[in-house]
Design brief:
The chain is α/β, with parallel strands linked by helices. It is globular, with a radius of gyration of 18 Å. A hairpin with a 2-residue loop joins β7 and β8. The strands form two sheets. Strands 6-5-4-3-2-1-14-15 form an eight-stranded mixed β-sheet. The protein has a seven-stranded mixed β-sheet with strand order 7-8-9-10-11-12-13, with helices on one face.
């Protein structure tokens, strides 16, 4: 048994290239510098679990060949993380798609797409089953998921730990009380917006500090803006166990806690 992690999107809310920008990153010919909004697909024990479903979801999922999604974990209600939920409708052919989110996030989603939750829905709308979460661990068909409380500026949001893997996007701070939930990780995925300070995201150096504190075997940076820098240049500055994620990267983790490999998935060209 193994766990496959596919980075569907690794960019910030504006994506990269950013509309109207002609900086060296936005005009780069390196495909690793082209970043859609942050999202991740985790496959384990025959289940496909999506983390966040942003406005680029339709394009992100097309190249994967995935025909079912068993659960969607939502970190928070910002549009770049939930804007593609309506595009889950093809996955509702054989039943509801289960969405797990903190209660205030669940309420926000239902407010934004109320037609998906009417008692008498018209044909074709997505069939979504909302599962409001608290901070306690829960199970998806026997797979334990542990919410991790993190802060996006002052907004409380969730990261998630599944097995020896954890995903923390849009982080500015992690309470000391939550660090214990992140012990003995094989892989940590963590926010690193850019080198310059930001009110609601970790800088690269702040991300490195948390990686040193959490001590995963390997860490992958996510949610990078065009201010992050060119992938080819920035990867030279990474600590030994830190890597820059990019759209289409796949990581495989055997469930025996041994890290296996990372490979690139072919992407459809825009």
């Amino acid at each position: 048994m193994e766990m496959k992690i596919r980075f569907l999107g690794t960019g910030t809310s504006t994506g990269n290239p950013e509309i109207g920008c002609r900086c060296e990153v936005c005009t780069s010919s390196d495909r690793r510098d082209r970043r859609m909004r942050a999202s991740l697909l985790l496959q384990t024990q025959g289940k496909n679990i999506l983390i966040d479903c942003g406005p680029d979801f339709r394009w992100q999922i097309l190249h994967t060949g995935i025909t079912k999604i068993d659960a969607v974990l939502i970190t928070h209600e910002h549009y770049d993380h939930v804007g593609g939920i309506d595009d889950l409708r093809p996955f509702c052919k054989f039943g509801d798609v289960d969405i797990y989110a903190e209660k205030y996030v669940s309420d926000a989603i239902q407010t934004r797409i109320p037609y998906a939750f009417y008692e008498n829905k018209y044909p074709g709308v997505p069939n979504l089953e909302m599962h409001p979460l608290d901070i306690n661990p829960f199970h998806i068909d026997g797979i334990e998921v542990t919410p991790v409380r993190i802060y996006h500026a002052k907004l409380p949001i969730f990261g998630y730990r599944i097995g020896n893997f954890a995903y923390l996007t849009d982080v500015k701070s992690i309470p000391d009380s939550e660090i214990d939930k992140l012990k003995d990780l094989e892989v940590l995925v963590i926010d690193a917006l850019r080198p310059q300070a930001h009110i609601s995201h970790l800088t690269t150096e702040e991300s490195f500090d948390y990686i040193k504190k959490i001590k995963p075997k390997k860490a992958y940076l996510i949610h990078m803006s065009h201010h992050f820098g060119l992938h080819a240049e920035m990867e030279k500055k990474m600590p030994e166990n830190v890597f820059i994620s990019y759209d289409g990267l796949e990581i495989t983790l055997p469930l025996n806690q041994t890290f296996a490999s990372s490979t690139e998935i072919p992407l459809l060209e825009a």
